[in-house]
Automatic annotation (TrEMBL):
<dbReference type="InterPro" id="IPR000748">
    <property type="entry name" value="PsdUridine_synth_RsuA/RluB/E/F"/>
</dbReference>
<dbReference type="InterPro" id="IPR036986">
    <property type="entry name" value="S4_RNA-bd_sf"/>
</dbReference>
<dbReference type="Pfam" id="PF00849">
    <property type="entry name" value="PseudoU_synth_2"/>
</dbReference>
<dbReference type="GO" id="GO:0009982">
    <property type="term" value="F:pseudouridine synthase activity"/>
</dbReference>
<dbReference type="InterPro" id="IPR050343">
    <property type="entry name" value="RsuA_PseudoU_synthase"/>
</dbReference>
<feature type="domain" description="Pseudouridine synthase RsuA/RluA-like">
    <location>
        <begin position="61"/>
        <end position="194"/>
    </location>
</feature>
<dbReference type="InterPro" id="IPR020094">
    <property type="entry name" value="TruA/RsuA/RluB/E/F_N"/>
</dbReference>
<dbReference type="GO" id="GO:0001522">
    <property type="term" value="P:pseudouridine synthesis"/>
</dbReference>
<dbReference type="GO" id="GO:0003723">
    <property type="term" value="F:RNA binding"/>
</dbReference>
<dbReference type="GO" id="GO:0006364">
    <property type="term" value="P:rRNA processing"/>
</dbReference>
<dbReference type="InterPro" id="IPR020103">
    <property type="entry name" value="PsdUridine_synth_cat_dom_sf"/>
</dbReference>
<protein>
    <recommendedName>
        <fullName>Pseudouridine synthase</fullName>
        <ecNumber>5.4.99.-</ecNumber>
    </recommendedName>
</protein>
<dbReference type="InterPro" id="IPR006145">
    <property type="entry name" value="PsdUridine_synth_RsuA/RluA"/>
</dbReference>
<keyword id="KW-0413">Isomerase</keyword>
<dbReference type="GO" id="GO:0140098">
    <property type="term" value="F:catalytic activity, acting on RNA"/>
</dbReference>
<dbReference type="GO" id="GO:0005829">
    <property type="term" value="C:cytosol"/>
</dbReference>
<keyword id="KW-0694">RNA-binding</keyword>
Protein backbone atom coordinates (compact mmCIF):
# COMPACT_ATOMS: atom_id res chain seq x y z
CA UNK A 1 0.00 0.00 0.00
CA UNK A 2 1.23 3.50 -0.72
CA UNK A 3 2.58 5.03 2.46
CA UNK A 4 0.74 8.33 2.03
CA UNK A 5 -2.59 6.54 1.52
CA UNK A 6 -1.97 4.37 4.58
CA UNK A 7 -1.35 7.41 6.78
CA UNK A 8 -4.44 9.22 5.50
CA UNK A 9 -6.58 6.13 6.04
CA UNK A 10 -5.30 4.98 9.43
CA UNK A 11 -4.72 8.38 11.04
CA UNK A 12 -7.61 10.09 9.23
CA UNK A 13 -5.43 13.01 8.22
CA UNK A 14 -5.96 15.54 5.48
CA UNK A 15 -3.52 15.58 2.58
CA UNK A 16 -1.86 18.66 4.07
CA UNK A 17 -1.54 17.07 7.51
CA UNK A 18 -0.05 13.92 6.00
CA UNK A 19 2.61 15.91 4.14
CA UNK A 20 3.47 17.80 7.31
CA UNK A 21 4.20 14.52 9.11
CA UNK A 22 6.80 13.73 6.45
CA UNK A 23 8.27 17.23 6.69
CA UNK A 24 8.59 16.89 10.46
CA UNK A 25 10.38 13.53 10.07
CA UNK A 26 7.59 11.74 11.89
CA UNK A 27 7.37 8.84 9.42
CA UNK A 28 9.63 5.88 10.18
CA UNK A 29 10.10 2.61 8.29
CA UNK A 30 12.09 -0.02 10.16
CA UNK A 31 13.51 2.67 12.42
CA UNK A 32 14.65 4.96 9.61
CA UNK A 33 13.06 8.28 8.65
CA UNK A 34 11.17 7.91 5.36
CA UNK A 35 10.52 10.85 3.02
CA UNK A 36 8.99 9.04 0.03
CA UNK A 37 5.24 9.47 0.25
CA UNK A 38 4.62 7.02 -2.60
CA UNK A 39 6.68 4.19 -1.11
CA UNK A 40 4.97 0.81 -1.17
CA UNK A 41 4.76 -0.72 2.31
CA UNK A 42 3.27 -3.72 4.06
CA UNK A 43 3.37 -4.43 7.78
CA UNK A 44 4.25 -8.06 7.01
CA UNK A 45 7.58 -6.75 5.74
CA UNK A 46 8.07 -3.43 7.55
CA UNK A 47 7.62 -1.79 10.92
CA UNK A 48 5.68 1.37 10.12
CA UNK A 49 5.61 4.15 12.73
CA UNK A 50 4.04 7.57 12.27
CA UNK A 51 4.25 10.14 15.06
CA UNK A 52 5.05 7.30 17.44
CA UNK A 53 2.03 5.22 16.41
CA UNK A 54 2.47 1.76 14.91
CA UNK A 55 0.44 1.30 11.71
CA UNK A 56 -0.60 -1.98 10.12
CA UNK A 57 -1.73 -2.75 6.60
CA UNK A 58 -4.38 -5.28 5.61
CA UNK A 59 -3.62 -6.18 2.01
CA UNK A 60 -4.53 -9.41 0.21
CA UNK A 61 -2.10 -11.43 -1.93
CA UNK A 62 -3.31 -14.53 -3.77
CA UNK A 63 -1.50 -16.98 -6.02
CA UNK A 64 -3.94 -18.34 -8.61
CA UNK A 65 -3.49 -21.28 -10.96
CA UNK A 66 -5.49 -19.70 -13.76
CA UNK A 67 -7.73 -21.99 -15.81
CA UNK A 68 -8.56 -21.66 -19.49
CA UNK A 69 -11.53 -19.45 -20.45
CA UNK A 70 -11.22 -17.18 -17.40
CA UNK A 71 -10.47 -13.63 -18.55
CA UNK A 72 -7.83 -11.55 -16.81
CA UNK A 73 -10.06 -8.66 -15.83
CA UNK A 74 -11.69 -7.22 -12.74
CA UNK A 75 -15.17 -7.61 -14.21
CA UNK A 76 -16.90 -8.76 -17.38
CA UNK A 77 -20.64 -8.75 -18.12
CA UNK A 78 -20.56 -12.13 -19.88
CA UNK A 79 -17.38 -14.08 -19.11
CA UNK A 80 -15.94 -15.51 -15.90
CA UNK A 81 -13.05 -13.38 -14.69
CA UNK A 82 -10.07 -14.35 -12.56
CA UNK A 83 -11.56 -12.25 -9.75
CA UNK A 84 -14.74 -14.34 -9.90
CA UNK A 85 -12.58 -17.35 -8.95
CA UNK A 86 -11.76 -15.76 -5.59
CA UNK A 87 -14.26 -16.68 -2.86
CA UNK A 88 -16.50 -13.80 -1.80
CA UNK A 89 -15.15 -14.06 1.76
CA UNK A 90 -11.67 -13.29 0.40
CA UNK A 91 -12.89 -10.30 -1.60
CA UNK A 92 -13.37 -7.92 1.32
CA UNK A 93 -11.48 -5.22 -0.61
CA UNK A 94 -10.93 -4.47 -4.32
CA UNK A 95 -8.63 -6.99 -6.01
CA UNK A 96 -6.57 -6.64 -9.18
CA UNK A 97 -4.62 -9.11 -11.33
CA UNK A 98 -0.94 -8.25 -11.76
CA UNK A 99 -0.41 -8.30 -15.51
CA UNK A 100 -2.56 -10.46 -17.74
CA UNK A 101 -2.78 -13.91 -19.24
CA UNK A 102 -4.69 -14.66 -22.44
CA UNK A 103 -8.03 -16.37 -22.01
CA UNK A 104 -6.64 -19.73 -23.18
CA UNK A 105 -3.40 -19.46 -21.15
CA UNK A 106 -3.14 -21.21 -17.80
CA UNK A 107 -0.81 -20.98 -14.84
CA UNK A 108 0.51 -18.48 -12.34
CA UNK A 109 -1.33 -15.22 -11.81
CA UNK A 110 -0.82 -12.92 -8.83
CA UNK A 111 -3.98 -11.24 -7.58
CA UNK A 112 -3.73 -8.53 -4.94
CA UNK A 113 -5.39 -5.52 -3.37
CA UNK A 114 -1.99 -3.78 -3.41
CA UNK A 115 -2.23 -1.81 -6.63
CA UNK A 116 1.16 -0.22 -6.04
CA UNK A 117 2.80 -3.66 -6.07
CA UNK A 118 1.25 -4.40 -9.45
CA UNK A 119 2.45 -1.06 -10.76
CA UNK A 120 6.02 -1.72 -9.58
CA UNK A 121 6.17 -5.26 -10.99
CA UNK A 122 4.91 -4.16 -14.41
CA UNK A 123 7.34 -1.27 -14.90
CA UNK A 124 9.46 -2.08 -18.00
CA UNK A 125 12.65 -0.98 -16.25
CA UNK A 126 12.10 -3.63 -13.56
CA UNK A 127 12.60 -6.31 -16.24
CA UNK A 128 10.54 -8.89 -14.38
CA UNK A 129 11.17 -12.32 -15.89
CA UNK A 130 8.22 -14.53 -16.81
CA UNK A 131 8.70 -18.21 -17.67
CA UNK A 132 6.21 -20.19 -19.73
CA UNK A 133 5.88 -23.80 -20.77
CA UNK A 134 4.65 -23.90 -24.34
CA UNK A 135 3.54 -26.70 -26.62
CA UNK A 136 4.23 -25.84 -30.26
CA UNK A 137 2.80 -27.52 -33.37
CA UNK A 138 6.17 -28.20 -35.05
CA UNK A 139 9.73 -29.16 -34.26
CA UNK A 140 11.57 -26.38 -32.43
CA UNK A 141 15.21 -26.24 -33.48
CA UNK A 142 18.48 -24.75 -32.31
CA UNK A 143 17.99 -22.12 -35.01
CA UNK A 144 14.84 -21.04 -33.17
CA UNK A 145 16.78 -20.91 -29.90
CA UNK A 146 19.34 -18.62 -31.55
CA UNK A 147 16.62 -16.39 -33.03
CA UNK A 148 14.95 -15.95 -29.66
CA UNK A 149 18.30 -15.18 -28.04
CA UNK A 150 18.99 -12.53 -30.68
CA UNK A 151 15.52 -10.98 -30.42
CA UNK A 152 12.52 -12.03 -32.50
CA UNK A 153 11.37 -9.44 -35.05
CA UNK A 154 7.62 -9.09 -35.65
CA UNK A 155 6.05 -8.37 -39.04
CA UNK A 156 5.57 -4.71 -38.08
CA UNK A 157 9.31 -4.35 -37.47
CA UNK A 158 9.22 -4.44 -33.67
CA UNK A 159 12.19 -6.34 -32.25
CA UNK A 160 11.63 -8.20 -29.00
CA UNK A 161 14.19 -8.21 -26.25
CA UNK A 162 16.44 -11.28 -26.14
CA UNK A 163 14.63 -14.30 -24.69
CA UNK A 164 15.77 -17.63 -23.34
CA UNK A 165 14.28 -20.63 -25.14
CA UNK A 166 14.95 -24.14 -23.85
CA UNK A 167 13.82 -27.23 -25.76
CA UNK A 168 12.35 -29.94 -23.52
CA UNK A 169 11.08 -32.21 -26.28
CA UNK A 170 11.22 -31.78 -30.05
CA UNK A 171 9.34 -33.99 -32.50
CA UNK A 172 8.24 -33.49 -36.07
CA UNK A 173 4.70 -32.36 -35.31
CA UNK A 174 5.00 -31.15 -31.71
CA UNK A 175 7.55 -29.65 -29.33
CA UNK A 176 7.53 -28.69 -25.66
CA UNK A 177 9.68 -25.75 -24.60
CA UNK A 178 10.40 -23.37 -21.75
CA UNK A 179 10.50 -19.68 -22.65
CA UNK A 180 11.63 -16.85 -20.38
CA UNK A 181 10.90 -13.27 -21.41
CA UNK A 182 11.05 -9.88 -19.71
CA UNK A 183 8.36 -8.16 -21.75
CA UNK A 184 4.60 -8.37 -21.71
CA UNK A 185 3.32 -7.34 -25.13
CA UNK A 186 -0.16 -8.44 -26.22
CA UNK A 187 -0.06 -12.14 -27.25
CA UNK A 188 3.72 -11.86 -27.21
CA UNK A 189 4.67 -15.53 -26.82
CA UNK A 190 2.29 -16.60 -29.57
CA UNK A 191 3.53 -13.86 -31.89
CA UNK A 192 7.16 -14.79 -31.25
CA UNK A 193 6.58 -18.34 -32.40
CA UNK A 194 4.44 -17.19 -35.33
CA UNK A 195 7.39 -15.10 -36.46
CA UNK A 196 9.28 -18.39 -36.68
CA UNK A 197 6.46 -20.03 -38.65
CA UNK A 198 5.16 -22.03 -35.69
CA UNK A 199 1.96 -22.02 -33.66
CA UNK A 200 1.52 -22.28 -29.89
CA UNK A 201 -1.19 -24.81 -29.09
CA UNK A 202 -0.89 -24.71 -25.28
CA UNK A 203 0.64 -22.15 -22.94
CA UNK A 204 1.18 -22.21 -19.18
CA UNK A 205 2.97 -19.62 -17.05
CA UNK A 206 5.28 -21.19 -14.48
CA UNK A 207 6.80 -18.13 -12.84
CA UNK A 208 6.74 -14.36 -12.61
CA UNK A 209 9.65 -12.63 -10.95
CA UNK A 210 10.47 -14.50 -7.72
CA UNK A 211 7.07 -16.24 -7.61
CA UNK A 212 6.66 -19.79 -8.89
CA UNK A 213 3.48 -21.71 -9.66
CA UNK A 214 2.48 -23.99 -6.79
CA UNK A 215 1.96 -27.33 -8.53
CA UNK A 216 -0.13 -28.44 -5.54
CA UNK A 217 -2.80 -25.99 -6.67
CA UNK A 218 -5.36 -27.54 -8.99
CA UNK A 219 -6.30 -25.50 -12.04
CA UNK A 220 -8.70 -22.81 -10.87
CA UNK A 221 -7.53 -22.93 -7.25
CA UNK A 222 -5.70 -20.21 -5.32
CA UNK A 223 -4.08 -19.60 -1.96
CA UNK A 224 -2.60 -16.71 -0.01
CA UNK A 225 1.09 -16.00 -0.45
CA UNK A 226 3.34 -17.41 2.25
CA UNK A 227 5.56 -15.14 4.32
CA UNK A 228 8.56 -16.56 2.45
CA UNK A 229 6.98 -15.55 -0.87
CA UNK A 230 6.15 -12.10 0.50
CA UNK A 231 9.78 -11.65 1.50
CA UNK A 232 10.82 -12.53 -2.05
CA UNK A 233 8.59 -9.69 -3.25
CA UNK A 234 10.26 -7.22 -0.89
CA UNK A 235 12.42 -5.93 -3.77
CA UNK A 236 9.26 -4.22 -5.09
CA UNK A 237 8.62 -2.46 -1.77
CA UNK A 238 11.78 -0.32 -1.74
Amino acid sequence: MRLDKLIEEKLETTRKEMKRLFALKQVMIDGTVEFRQNRNVDSLLHRIEVAGEHLETNESYYLLNKPKKAVTAVSDPEKTTVIDLIASADRFQPLYPVGRLDRDTTGLLLITSNGQLGYEMLLPEKKVSKTYQAVVNERVTLADVAAFEKGIVFADGYQCQPANLKILKAEKHQSTVLLTIQEGKFHQVKKMFLAQGKKVIALKRLSMGPLELDEQLAVGEYRSLTLAEMKKLSIYFK
